[in-house]
Every structure is written in structure tokens, then in C-alpha cells.
Amino acid sequence: MKLRAAITAVGGYVPEKVLHNKDLEKMVDTNDQWIRERTGIVERRILDGGRATSDMAVEAIKDLLTKTDVKVSEIDLIIVSTVSPDYVYPATANIIADKIGAPQSWGFDMNAACAGFLYALRTGSQFIESGMHKKVLVVGADHMSMRVDYTDRYTCILFGDGAGVVLLEPMTEELGIIDSSFVVDGSGSQFLMQPAGGSARPTTIETVKNREQFIFQEGRTVFKHAVKGMADITEEVMKRNNLSSDDVAYLVPHQANKRIIDATAKRAGLPQEKVMININHYGNTTNATIPLCLWDWQDQLKKGDNLLLAAFGGGFAWGSIYLKWAY
Fold first, then answer.
1. Is 284 a catalytic residue?
2. pLDDT at residue 1 is higher than 80
3. CB neighbours of 324 closer than 8 A, spacing ≥ 6?
4. Which CATH architecture has domain 178-324?
5. Is 254 a catalytic residue?
6. 94, 111, 114, 156: which is the annotated catalytic residue?
């Protein structure tokens, strides 16, 4: 009997501090109307108090565990998708396992920029499908405000902080992750990146003065590739599985920009009421956007609902997953 990996619980956390568009008006040359029209963002959450990415992830996991009968001691594996780990090493997954009291689990971090959660979800599903593990936590968490240059009017308006997590368990019913498709194009890496801090350009006094430790994005190029990439790959997965727009309960897109979301939905033939959107409240939380959507919408989902998950990120890296909701 074929095992499938199914999402059986969802948890989320966003920090209490809210950064409104009006606040950004005092920091850079921008205004509320301009931000709303170009991105769909009204506010975003900001982590403060000396806390780290792992702290948000732990809160999301606590939220998930309160909704299940699963004990921490039963968690086999923790996969963390993030571009803002607590440290270069050790892995943030290791730190999270220690903080939640799960020494029996093992784990690792993944980085595929904004597409990372989908990459991690597919990776986690393979551990379930192989029979190696029975309870896998897949975390998407980012402390993006630490990566943002708040003197750059084009990028500082986009990002917020947050964490989301799903529990994957084996399922023998026709539920869970059914299909997926992923693409990478390294020639696009120069258009969306953190210029300094890696082995190609280590951090120096000069790179810090040049603010190269922050996000760099060539907006028009990224927008063009993101619209095409997310729309193409979503359409591909729909066709391969003979899904019409009527068959799809929800599109769950990465929350990078409302215009990118709208273009992807239009290509899939899906009306707004079938598209999960929370970018207006959280901004782009990078790896956390898709699990936070599932967290916000979980009470509206029904067992057997067809969901299409789609994301695009730096690298370039993009992908789509088709799953049937399992509870």
C-alpha cells in the first residue's frame, strides 16, 4: 500500500510589534498609497527584544502541538527552511530541537530563498514516503527585518518576520502530497541576493560600510521572472493532474507581491475567493509565507480539498506542490 505524506497539523507565530506603512513614511521616501498599490502590503510584523529565528519557530511549534495529541518525544525529524538562521552554524534545526526538548529527533536547515518552504516540504515528505520517519516537522521561519536595509525604499517596504510549521505524517488514503515540480536557474542569482557574508564575498569593514549584508533586489527583473515562473509551474502541475479551476479549493501562493499573486491566479483560472492572501498584514516573511497562509485558513479547509502551493525565490528557485488536505 502506497504511503503518502500528509499535513496533519499547522502552527504559526508572528511577532507582536507592527510596522505600518505610515511608520515607513517617516523612515524613507515612500507613502502608504504607493506601497499598497505596488505590493498590497499594509503592515508587517517585526521581531524585537533580542529574539532569533529559532524563538519564532519554537512558538509556532508550541501552537501546533496544542492542537494535536502528538508528544514532543514522538517527533522524528525537524527540517527548517530559512535564510536567517540563528548562526551560520550550528543549524537552527538543532537549536529548535534543544529548545522544545526533543533530543531524540534529528534535523537540518535548508535554503532555497523564498521557495524554501516548498523544497523543505517535499524533502520531508520523502522521509515519510520511504517509511524512515512517522512524524516530521517542516518549519518555515525568517527574521527578515535583520536582512533589510531600512534606508532602501524599494526593499524595506516588502519584508516582515514570522514562522509557520506543519506536521507531516504517513497516510494510506488518497490524501496528502500528490505531485510536485521544481526548477532552479542559477543565472538569476545576481538579481536577488545578499551580496556579502558568504565565502564568495566575506564580511569586511568595507562590505558593512557598503551595506552589502542586506538584501539586494533588482525589482523589475525579479518581478518578471516570478510572474512567469509561478504561473508556468502551477499550470504544469494542474495539467499533469487533470485539475481544472473548479477542482481547486485554494491556491496557496508565496506572499511576495499582490500583483504576482494575481497574475498566478489568473493563469490558473482561479477567482480571488480561491486564493489565500495575507501579505497585507504580514508582508513577505520569505520562508514563512505559505505555512502562515495555511495557519490563517486552516479552519476553512475541509478533508479532501485540493490545494496548489506555489513559490518563487532568489536563486532563482521556484516550485509548486499539489496536495489533498488530510483533516
1. yes
2. no
3. 6, 174, 175, 176, 178, 304, 305, 306, 307
4. 3-Layer(aba) Sandwich (3.40)
5. yes
6. 114
